Amino acid sequence: xxxxxxxxGESWVSQSTHIKGVDSFTTSSYVTGVEPLRRALESRGHEVxxxxxxxxxxxxxxxxxxxxxxxxxxxxDIGANSIQLAPQVFEQAVPGTDRLGALRAWVADGGGLLMVxxxxxxxxxxxxxxxxxxxxHEALPVxxxxxxxxxxxxxxxxxxVTAAGHAALGGVEGxxxxxxxxxxxxxxxxxxxxxxxxxxPLVAVAGYGEGRSAVFTSDCSPHWAPKPFCEEWDGYAxxxxxxxxxxxx
Length: 249
Hints:
alpha/beta
């Protein structure tokens, strides 16, 4: 079955300062990390729309009709503030839409939600992703930490699959390539933890109302997901394809 997938996030602008003696100048570059995930899902026949991070504040869907264009919404390395603070709210102090509340209601009515890890996912770097105190938190299959939840694994660590037969893993077999970090979370009651990393949930899924939600607590692209994982391993498309297909019911 073809699913319509919205991926929000997975882009950024990097700025560098070059200092040469008494002189300096800055350069900027726009970078996307979505391509491994987009290619994986499109290779399984799904329709993927990417909403870059800089467009999320103005364009993220804010009601059931707008969300209804999709079967699955993926939030990847995009913080709660970017979704909640539309320009009219943040810049003009004009009341707007509680878009995370709308997303939670959409999941409860039958939608599929996947959160992928990163510095601006879950609680995130210095707590800046900030999903713990939002309406969306209760729709996730995991409890978020109140503090910076990143776990860096510079030497790499391999996932331990705990439910290989679950449809959300897409039939992947064998050892997974090493990952370099993840966001630490705690599984809720009645959540199925399908894979762990360093003893913590890596892939977890649950129902929420009439819908479903899932997390992949490491990254879908570098740096936590190095090339052997996200570009060279055929299991990558199976895992993320399986998650999307399970979420789309």
